[in-house]
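re: ur msg from earlier - yeah i can do the zinc ion complex, just paste it... oh wait u already did. ok heres what im feeding in:
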Amino acid sequence: MVKKRKELVPTPKSKFYNVRCPDCGNTQTIFSHASTYVRCFVCNRLLAAPTGGKARIEGKKVSEFG
Ligand SMILES: [Zn+2]
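and the outut:
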């Protein structure tokens, strides 16, 4: 039986993601609600795109924290 339910909070909690670039394998930290386009430091591939809320992660999310 599942007793705990995840609360659906209207205001999203911000986090940080470690995102791996699918092109070069570089891993970098991206704010979950990034309001600008985030590109890979190494190869300049787009890793996160702003959506007005939670950023759309374009790479492989390896972990999250914060
Ligand atoms: Zn890259």
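cool cool. The chain has no helices and six strands. ping me if u need the other ligands too
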